[in-house]
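Quick one: structure tokens for this chain, please?
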Amino acid sequence: MKDTYKMLTKPSEEVLFKDRNSKFFGLAFPVKTEGEIESILEKVKNNHYKARHWCYAWQLGKEEFQYRVNDDGEPSNSAGMPIYGQIQSFEVTNILIVVVRYFGGVKLGVGGLINAYRTAAQMALENSEILKRTIDEVFIIKFDYPEMNKVMTMIKQNNLNVIDQKLELNCKIFISVRKKDTASIFEKFNTTYKIEISKL
């Protein structure tokens, strides 16, 4: 079961690829929502208002993916798809890559465009900090105060991440569990006397 994903820690530095007087600026951004993508695209267009094309590709999600590509007036599949190909190649998600083109007066042809957009996207990714993360699920453990010691020992033994706790007469502890370990962790708590566990 794949329970990891890769994402950017911060926006990349702007990179430049040149081909026959055309300039291709590549930028990569970590994103979480389509709304965020829209506002970043707006900023990039404002910063590069003299450019001819602002082509991009994005992907959102950790297990189920949504993606979109945009050729922004370039020949069909000559810009957005080559950019998206690099997102797949680097296996990153929650990402937007924009390649801004300043036309240099010489037509590059579809093959030249594919190469330029792919290369600028690749350079942007190579200039990015990429982090590998685990896909986690959150569980809530419920128990009465006398069981506290038992629960804390189990949490420690299994190296579980406590994300919140309410310790009163009726206690609740929220734990984050890596997806591949969820079945075994659930089983351990579920079969322990006087302790309830459920998925949040």
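The chain has a mean pLDDT of 95.
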